[in-house]
Amino acid sequence: MIPPPNPASGPAASVAALERLRQFAISSNVTSGGGLRKAFGGGSVFSIPETKRQRPSFGGAAAYPFDLTLEDGGATYTGKFRPGTVNGLIPSNYLSLTGIAKTGTVYIGIVCTFSNAAIQTATFAAGIVWLDGMPTTMGVPPTDVNILTHVIVDGTVFRVLGPGNPWLTPAAVFETDKAGPISPGEKPTDVWYTYNLTSVV
């Protein structure tokens, strides 16, 4: 940093001295709060505001609903999940999912049942059914839905769920022509439904 110029003393600082002070302020990246002011007894004093420093963050990694911790259960792991909800319902076994293999690839997810798009049950499970994708059904939203939450590879956990609580919203996705004769006034197509999965923070 270049040293500040010595402003002219006395009640009337020269134009040249003021210009030198202004250039010093610019070169020193002085922002709002600093400037030239009158000193007691005459003369001019240039003040520089205190620089605000950003406080360092010492917090750990962010915690999300359904974060998974593996505990050694002997031949297998036992999974414990941070509390969270699916459509407002807490999975019944979030504190203990037993029988997670220690080697290979294991898929972890939530098995959900619905009735008229209202969630009835939610349970964590380990298996390969998560690769089937979101189902579609005709006329009403699906009653059985599996949500993939984690993939474990040789004991290393990878979260595939978003950072919030999962929320399933029914949605019409396509229509098919009805088979057979159509009654007067009857809709000529069948509507098929699925769920849109979002992560609610």
Q: How would you characterize the overall build of this protein?
A:
The chain is mostly beta strands and 201 residues long. It folds into two domains: 1-52, no CATH class; 68-200, no CATH class. It is built from one helix and twelve strands, in the order H-E-E-E-E-E-E-E-E-E-E-E-E. It has one helix at residues 15-27, and strands spanning 35-38, 44-47, 68-72, 77-81, 97-100, 105-115, 118-127, 137-138, 144-153, 156-159, 165-177, 189-200. The strands form four sheets. The protein has a four-stranded antiparallel β-sheet, with no helix packed on it. A three-stranded antiparallel β-sheet has the order 3-4-5, with no helix packed on it. Strands 8-12-11 form a three-stranded antiparallel β-sheet, with no helix packed on it. The longest helix has 13 residues, at 15-27. Residues 48-58 have low confidence and may be disordered.
Unreliable stretches covering 5 or more consecutive residues? 48-58
How many β-strands, per DSSP? 12
Mean pLDDT: 81
* Spatial strand arrangement across the major sheet: 7-6-9-10
The amount of helix comes to under 10%
Give the topology, please.
Layout: H1 15-27, E1 35-38, E2 44-47, E3 68-72, E4 77-81, E5 97-100, E6 105-115, E7 118-127, E8 137-138, E9 144-153, E10 156-159, E11 165-177, E12 189-200
Antiparallel strand pairs: 1-2, 3-4, 4-5, 6-7, 6-9, 8-12, 9-10, 11-12
Key structural traits:
three-stranded antiparallel β-sheet, 12 strands, 6% helix, single chain, four-stranded antiparallel β-sheet, 201 residues, mainly beta, 1 helix
